[in-house]
């Protein structure tokens, strides 16, 4: 199981991507005034370096802004949107952690892309695949092939 897992051997820190407040405002369609207010309330956090006093945001806070906006558009209060956002971000962290550990490779089974999610059993005799079929995912446990 060498495959794609080794394509990105080092975790990329997406929080190194930095966005100015005006860029965030345009990307998410939220006014800079709203962003400053959300920051004042503690719902989002800007990053300020020693060289600049302007507000910039990392990827996590861009996602946070996007989710808050989504929940507000769905009719939630700002506080409700913040709570829902934090719950969603916690779930997203768990999904990312799961994929970092489980994902092994993308292979082909029956002519279809199959995501190798690693060993299914403690004895490492069978592998769990998620087989992608247009709009559906089929899960299949396949006995490990003998390595030559």
Concise synopsis of the structure shown:
With about 150 residues, the chain is α+β, with helices and mostly antiparallel strands.
Write the layout of secondary structure elements.
Blueprint: E1 18-20, H1 21-28, H2 32-41, E2 56-58, H3 59-73, H4 78-102, E3 105-109, E4 112-119, E5 126-133, E6 136-143
Antiparallel strand pairs: 1-2, 3-4, 4-5, 5-6
Helix pairs in contact: 3-4
Unreliable runs, pLDDT <50, ≥5 residues?
A: none
User: What is the total domain count?
Assistant: 2
Strand content: 15-25%
Quick check: average pLDDT?
88
Report the strand count: 6
Domain HTH merR-type: 18-87
InterPro entries: DNA-bd_dom_put_sf (IPR009061), MerR-type_HTH_dom (IPR000551), MerR_fam (IPR047057)
Protein name: MerR family transcriptional regulator
Pfam families: MerR_1 (PF13411)
Please give a handful of descriptors for the protein shown.
alpha+beta, elongated, 39% helix, 148 residues, four-stranded antiparallel β-sheet, two-stranded antiparallel ribbon, Multidrug-efflux Transporter Regulator, Chain: A, Domain 2, 6 strands
């Amino acid at each position: 199981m060498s495959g794609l897992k080794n394509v990105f051997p080092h975790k990329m820190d997406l929080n190194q991507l930095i966005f100015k407040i005006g860029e965030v405002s345009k990307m998410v369609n939220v006014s800079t005034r709203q962003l400053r207010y959300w920051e004042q309330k503690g719902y989002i956090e800007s990053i300020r370096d020693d060289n600049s006093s302007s507000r910039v945001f990392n990827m996590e806070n861009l996602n946070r802004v996007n989710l808050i906006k989504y929940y507000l558009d769905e009719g939630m209060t700002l506080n409700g949107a913040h709570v829902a956002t934090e719950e969603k971000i916690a779930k997203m962290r768990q999904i990312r952690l799961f994929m970092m550990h489980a994902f092994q490779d993308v292979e082909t089974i029956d002519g279809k892309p199959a995501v190798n999610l690693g060993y299914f059993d403690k004895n490492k005799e069978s592998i769990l695949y998620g087989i992608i079929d247009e709009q559906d995912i089929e899960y299949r446990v396949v006995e490990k092939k003998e390595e030559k």
